[in-house]
Amino acid sequence: MKFKTALLLLILIIFVSCKKDSFASIKIKIEFENKLNQDLSKIYGIQVYKDGKIVKKFGAFEKPYIQKEITLDSLANGSYKIVYENLINQTLQKTVQIEENKFYEVSIFADYSDYRTLISKSFVRNLEENHKVEFYFESVGCFHSAKESLIISKKGKKYYVESNGKSRNLNRKELDAIIKLECELDLIKYGGCTTSDHYIVKSGNEQKEFYDETCKWNGWNNLLKLLNLKKTKV
Questions:
Q1: Quick one: pLDDT at residue 19?
Q2: 77 against 3, higher pLDDT
């Protein structure tokens, strides 16, 4: 009887000790809003901070490499910030507050951008009936060149896209994607790529001009895929 009691006591001590020394874990899931473009190689770096100090780094070109799912084990209580750059080189972050020893899960979207504050200034968003917004695109690289255009117009409550002389109406998802592209052009930061994408957006007497040298965003080609339009090469 004494032996059984002692054994149960020993098991209880071990259990309490293990529970006391256990730590939390965070699983970072990398996802994409655009299911047509899920290239992990376009995410160059992820940094994890605890209470303001960096504790882990992941990269596209050096170990430990960025993977679709990243698990951080043996984490003590505290505030953890997951910092990364999206496809237009905006620095974004997610915060996980660890207060107990359990499994935490957080998703980061590599192609998410904080563009919604710019929607009110969008030419397409403010398009009036029987007017048009013109998009001109030119891409030049070491081994390619391309020159294309889209015209967005409005008749009644319907929006239309014209490409290569053909026109059709746009659904809500397609219209939102065009507005998103226009807004994200305003957010694109530094580049450094040998490929330069030049955008001009015109509405009446107003015109906006942008250059994308990120080699990550690929906004024009992604939009053409969504609209089911073919690329033109020159």
A1: 47
A2: 77
